[in-house]
Design brief:
It holds the Pfam family EGF_CA. One of its GO terms (biological process) is cellular response to virus. Keywords: Disulfide bond, EGF-like domain, Glycoprotein, Repeat, Secreted, Signal. It is found in: Secreted. The protein is an alpha+beta fold and 222 residues long. Among the domains are: 47-97, Laminin (Ribbon); 132-184, Laminin (Ribbon), CATH 2.10.25. The protein is built from 2 helices and 17 strands. A 3-stranded antiparallel sheet has the order 5-6-7, with no helix packed on it. Strand 8 (112-117) and strand 9 (120-125) form a beta hairpin. The radius of gyration is 46 Å and the shape is rod-shaped. The N and C termini lie far apart (166 Å).
Length: 222
């Protein structure tokens, strides 16, 4: 009985020691296995550790198939391309970038703008430049030149240009300041005649002083 009592006292002393001074050393040891178990589940590439445990590094997420951090994230989206690394897309045209250009849609070669309000956003076709109108073609909606000469009020000749038109006047006439009407050019100001010059609408006529007659070139006097 004395031996058994001694053993009980010894065990009680050991328990007391463990619950007092040794408690600070024993407690962390018991908490580590669950922490290690969490970290052991996050194995493979692109795993980052922090004070809260472990998880996928920025730019990566868990792949549903393997449960590892092997699925890259592309913040801007890749459209019809494939995300091959964080913010790196492989596009159908063979190029790589942070995103892929969208294929031409109903807005044609001029693309779309986003019209946004409090209710959300919608794609709106861009407005064609001045002098162009949107026309539906087999290749989509495109901006084509307007032939303003069908409705332009030119006094002389109308010449259609890309995005506009110009008015031109015939020989002996010049374009007025309004860029539409024509006015006579006074050719006599350039003194084309040897003696006398008489201007007329769109032309001029030379004459000579008494005692002279007009040469066959219609300008010189003999």
């Amino acid at each position: 009985p004395s031996v058994m009592l001694a053993e009980l006292l010894f065990q009680a002393a050991c328990v007391s020691l463990l619950l007092s001074g040794g408690q600070g050393r024993v407690y962390p040891g018991r908490k580590k296995p669950p922490s290690f178990a969490v970290e052991r589940r996050r194995v493979g590439p692109h795993v980052c550790f922090s004070g809260f445990g472990s998880g996928c590094c920025p730019g990566w997420m868990l792949s549903p198939g393997s449960g590892q951090c092997t699925l890259p994230l592309c913040s801007f989206g890749c459209g019809s391309g494939l995300c091959i690394a964080p913010n790196l897309c492989s596009c159908p045209d063979g190029e790589q970038g942070i995103t892929c250009p969208e294929p031409p849609g109903a807005c044609g070669e001029y693309g779309c703008d986003l019209s946004c309000n409090q209710g959300g956003c919608q794609e709106v076709a861009r407005v064609c430049p001045l002098g162009f109108s949107m026309v539906e073609t087999p290749n989509g909606i495109r901006c084509t030149d307007i032939n303003e000469c069908l409705s332009a009020a030119c006094e002389g000749l109308c010449v259609n240009t890309e995005g506009g038109f110009v008015c031109e006047c015939g020989p002996g006439m010049q374009l007025s300041a309004d860029r539409h009407s024509c006015q006579d050019t006074d050719e006599c100001q350039a003194t084309p005649c040897q003696h006398r010059c008489k201007n007329s609408i769109g032309s001029y006529r030379c004459s000579c002083r008494p005692g002279y007659h007009l040469h066959g070139n219609r300008h010189s006097c003999v």
